[in-house]
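Wed. Picked up where I left off yesterday with AbiTii domain-containing protein. The coffee machine is broken again, so keeping this brief.
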Amino acid sequence: MFDAREGTMTSMIASIHEQCGDPDHKLSDLVQRSIFVATVLRDTQVSQWLRQELDGYTDDSDLPLHRQGNTAALLAWRPGLGWVEAPISDAQRRTVSGFSLPTGINELEENYADILRNGGCRCPLNDERQAEIRALVRLDTDLCLVVPTMAVNLLMQTVRHGIRDWSGALLEAGVHGQGSSFSAEEKSAAEQIALTLDTLLETARESGAAAAAEMSKRKSGLLSRLMDRITA
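Structure written out below (tokens, as returned):
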């Protein structure tokens, strides 16, 4: 990236790292550019992780922890009414609330306004899971889980913070690049950082959870202020 003010070529990694701190910068753009950098660095582990995050995980994939949880709500299909909250006991609710969300960031971003409006992201169940839950809750109808907005925010914030921490580690190791080219030494340093990806993601999940909680708090505060104005 050319910085017209300085007349120099800005490191793409530095640009990505900086934009991770901008909540208005699209996460999908950060992921796509990070995939490019990882590919040029021949960092297969990082590029594979990011491609899965962007496009979604396959049914046979082991999903990372930031895509799992136990806070989903069960919905049941009612003819004439559509999807409604399933009439189940608290004990049943605790049993069926576990979820794995494979949906890619591209799709989550595209549907984010609907996710906010609906309070979550609908997560279809495969036939085996459908049959298992139907037998448990004794409902003979189509079922699906809704992953709450907070969990979606945690997922997206974890990926954002993961890219931030990965790009930051590259910069600290002296991996800047010249445009989109990297030296053999830089590629070697990047390879060592890739070996710590699991640790980086663990840290990113913790900071992502804090960021997601802060987002939820800000939205709750805004809603409260709007209601105060309406009722004043």
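Quick read: Residues 1-9, 220-232 have pLDDT under 50 and may be disordered.
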